[in-house]
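Objective 1.3, modelling of assemblies. Example input:
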Amino acid sequence: MASCGGEKMPEVIEFMKLALEQAKIAFDSLEVPVGCVLVMDGKVISRGRNRTNETRNATRHAEMEAIDVLLEQWKKEDLTKAEVAERFSKCYLYVTCEPCIMCAASLSFLGIKEVYYGCANDKFGGCGSILSLHTSTTSGENVGRKGYNCTGGIMAEEAVSLFRNFYELGNPNAPKPHRQPVQQT
Amino acid sequence: MLLESTNLYAHHYLVLGDMESWEIVHIPDKPPFPLHQQPTVSVYAAVIDPKHAHTLVRKLNEILPLESLRHAKRVRKQHLDGDDSQLHTIPQEVVELIDSYQLETFITKLHNSVLNSDWMCGLNCSNISGITGFSEEESRSVCTFMKLALDLAKSDTQMVNAAVVVDPSNNEVIARACDQVHSCSCSISHDVTNSSSLEYSIQSHDNMLLNSSASEPKLLFPGVSCLNPWGWSNRNSCGRACSWHPLRHAAIVAIEHSAARDRRLFPGNGHVFAETDHVQLDLSCPSSKKQKTKSIQAKVNAELNSDSNGSLSDLVRPYLCTGYDIYLIWEPCAMCAMALVHQRIKRIFYAFPNPIAGALGSVHRLQGEKSLNHHYAVFKVSLPQKSLDREGYH
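Predicted structure (tokens):
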């Protein structure tokens, strides 16, 4: 595991700023403000932001958007599956909020190298908050399963303040329980 | 009164015309314990005069509410055998109560969770229909849609997972999809299971589930994405014609289709929404639910046919998949199971557990993760043994 928080390398901050830029675009589009960038060899190769309201597809999280951009591009380049897997294994994700269980599982399936996130996601988080899908500690039968390093708390205040502004306005597309997440069963 | 244990493990057998038995089993949000292994807590109990019951319960609820044991009754007609082990001291106010009514306390064990117990009250933990049982008509629908999913799963050149999203209020199929992780026009490759190995794998499926470490289960159904989500890159791709995608599991594709349908049927600006609860209030005609759904359906069909942007969008636009069911052949992985939480699916039916990556009871149990903002009910539908056989099943 990489160091948690602590000394933040300047390049990590720079990439997180780009992810926050994406989150702000989401905010301006009346989407839950989460954004991300994917980085390979020190360069941003894909960006994504939440588009769940626009698409009416609640799985269109920033990570999924950024991943699909890449896959599209790599397929145009005629890469084989093995080559695509090879590239994912060199990718770093910078995302403003801890990946949810769905995204955390996806990143594990793809075999991404490392994740840096802003604020924790204590309702849905799949990188330690609710489940720990980034670790590879389950039984050895899962051939091909790789874990990825995950470091949280990068510019978390900025990410949280975007959320706060958003929920003060109210998510125009969410029904009531979504705006005020109260347990009701 | 006892809580019937069958409420939590409802078994429903349905005999179809061809005498094959199907079974629908609720998968609870907590791992089931055998009765004798259930966690218990020690509690004080006392024999009381029945005429003091009301007063004692009222006073005890004031002094010492059973906050963590809401599922338990305070009074039961027969007493259980107690033991003499030490418990925390009784609060002074309760001691006074015991003294004034001259009660003899003893210690008994109370089940810690909402499972079968002599001291249980009838607590209904969810109002999602099906948990306490299915009508014969409902069971028949469940089997019909599971068969549809099965046909889809077998329609590819190899066995894949399949998903069918259904609106149970009118049994309309909202979306259907198969795994598209390996979907190539030329996907018949050397590792496609041939007929005889398929038969073998069906027979050994149950064994595999009982003892998953004994074999390499992922080899049995290599095309089923949720069983082998890490293995997408190990299979051959075939260049340009290929439309593979490592994350396009059946449930994800089905969600995408249902979202596309939503956008097509309700092309509003995206900021008008109606929860299904509101829909029924908004409808002017106060007739029976069935008639309402029929009239909605008629409107939807009219909309589809005429391709017009009518007033419908303000009326019945659903919020994501609220109220819908999904049928899957294999228990979904964490990615798919969480996607179904996000999309607000109401009930999940699957046929086979997924001991490698299943997130609805096998490896994880998302339906029991309290922090999530939505909870669906999960059911396993046991299929007749031969149903995976391509030739032998119709």
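Chain B has a mean pLDDT of 70.
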